[in-house]
Amino acid sequence: MKERVRRIVMDHGRLSVASLSDADDLYRAGMTSHSSVNVMLALESEFDIEFPDEMLTRETFATIDAIVGAVGSLAGAA
Amino acid sequence: MAAAAFHEAVAAAAGVAAQHADDVDARARFPREAIDALRDGGTLGASVGTAHGGPDVGFADICDACRVLSRGCAATGMIFAMHHIQVASIARHAGDSAYIRDYLGRVASEQRLVASATSEVGTGGDLRRSIACVEDRGGGRLGFTKNAPTVSYGGHADDVLTTVWRGPDADASDQVLVLTARDESGMTQTGEWDTMGMRGTCSPGFEISAVFGPEQIVPGEFAPICSETMVPWSHLTWAHVWLGIATSAVGRAQAMVRAQGRRSPDVTPEAGGRLSAVVARLQAMRAFVDAATAEYAALMDGDPAHLSSFGYGLRINNLKIRASEDVAAICHDALGVVGIAGYRNGTPFSLGRHVRDSLSAALMIGNERIHATNARILLVQREV
Ligand SMILES: Cc1cc2nc3c(=O)[nH]c(=O)nc-3n(C[C@H](O)[C@H](O)[C@H](O)COP(=O)(O)OP(=O)(O)OC[C@H]3O[C@@H](n4cnc5c(N)ncnc54)[C@H](O)[C@@H]3O)c2cc1C
Question: Does the pLDDT at position B170 exceed 90?
Fold first, then answer.
């Protein structure tokens, strides 16, 4: 799953994650609130999930690890 | 200073502002008398926070002051609002910087007036993009050159807070807030401020060519400064300015209808129905703005995650859009109640200044730009 998440962040967050570790702050690396929406939509489509509003925070999408955790909890609950 | 003394000083300054409002508007001049009164009353330190030597005045008190001042002179109210937006953006994100702490103490003790240069030729009202870039000027000094199209009271402020791109290696949205005194800001005026309304804000363009030290960069990251402070303070204090304009306009309409009623005590004036409609709109605007103010006042010192959530962003954006549309509609409708005496300048019922001032609201960060941001949020946010 981590590889799929990384690819989505790379394609839709307009970031090069090749040089980023899983714990690096994506916002510091240049993801904006605008491009984070692209990432969210692509994740929802890829994993067939819906992020509940309370998960739509900076923290949820701040790192690859955080995204993997969030997607895992939603995909697991489905 | 406690809140009571603050409101007393604001009320006194509002009287001064009202007295000079027409002259300020006619000559597009700085409302010097009213700003001096606000300074003499010690009100410019209100957003510094008690921790930094400021008075014990809350966010809602500052909003209230914006409204009260704007009933008499909207330019004065808007200058007061913009100053406090800048000071709050510094104070609430000062980290443990000794330089900034000392600076905030001076805002309170010297009553320094702070202007802002966020918009830029080439980015318009996009707060999250800067072209001007921090440059190394050698010897530990930094610099930037920014072409700012609109800097309110830029020729009258003591200091300027400017958004600047962190550097050519940084991502496009990685900005810093730089605080410079006017005499180190190298400000060259680039145009005139001869506008339809808000003429007393004296907001021409400036080329700012500043040299400064690294300690003059506000420590906090810019994204949270925006979501937790700069955006909500802007939208809410502006909304109170607009509420002040709308309240004054409706007051003039009501005075007109009352005068008609006194002339023929046995018949309700024909304009009474239209007055009722515009009062309904004013009351709805007030309820909406007050609710949003209370919401922010309750959240501002709590978990910052609330303020950076999409849901909150949507609400505070819509507060700006609605309040800016309301003020223009209310001033327009008030003119319909008053008739020609409102259209003519120099009568007790004149509404020209109100209507012209109100039309700036939708342009100050263009509403279409804000709708475009909301459109993004609505792709993922569910509860609205
Ligand atoms: C009274 C007053 C005082 C001001 N004082 C200051 C100040 O002190 N400091 C400062 O920095 N700025 C100040 N400003 C500027 C203000 O903050 C805005 O930046 C400015 O009004 C926007 O200028 P613009 O219309 O040229 O720019 P733009 O933001 O470029 O907008 C141009 C037009 O395009 C529309 N638009 C933009 N983006 C989109 C989009 N994505 N989708 C659809 N439509 C879009 C807008 O709605 C607008 O109609 C002041 C403005 C006013 C009216």
Answer: no
What are B55-94's pLDDT values in tens digits?
Answer: 889 999 999 999 999 999 999 999 999 999 999 999 999 9
* Residue B24 and residue B149 in one domain: no
Amino acid A16: pLDDT? 67
Q: Which residue in the set B128, B308, B311 is minimally distant from A32, CB to CB?
A: B128
Shared domain for B191 and B253, answered yes or no, is: no
Instruction: Compute the nearest-CA separation of B173 from chain A (Å).
Output: 7
**Residue B184: is its pLDDT beyond 70?**
yes
pLDDT band at A78 (very low <50, low <70, confident <90, very high): low
In chain B, the number of structural domains is 3
Residue that terminates a domain, selected from B89, B113, B137 = B113
Contacts of residue B33, defined as CB under 8 A and 6 or more positions apart, other chains included, come to B16, B17, B19, B20
Give the residue numbers spanning the domain of B109. Answer: 3-113
Q: Whose CA is nearest to atom 13 of ligand 1?
A: B150
Return the residue of A nearest to B310 by Cα.
Answer: A56
Nearest to B381 among A29, A53, A58 (CB): A53
Residue B384 lies in a domain: no
Name B116's bridge partners: B161
Q: Are residues B64 and B141 in the same domain?
A: no
Task: Pick the most confident of A32-36, B174-178, B305-309.
Answer: B174-178
Do B208 and B227 have their domain in common? no
Segment A37-62 mean pLDDT: 92
Interface of A with B (CB under 8 A): 27-30, 32-34, 37, 40-41, 44, 50-53, 56-59
**CATH code for position B11:** 1.10.540.10
CA atoms of B326 and B362, how far apart (whole Å): 10
B342 CB contacts (<8 Å, ≥6 apart)?
A: B252, B253, B256, B334, B335, B349, B350, B351, B352
Minimal Cβ distance to B309: which of A27, A40, A57: A57
Residues of A in contact with B309 (CB under 8 A): 53, 56-57
Q: Is the CB of B203 under 6 A from ligand 1?
A: yes
Same domain, B346 and B227: yes
Interface test with B, best of A15, A26, A32, A49 (most B CBs within 10 A): A32
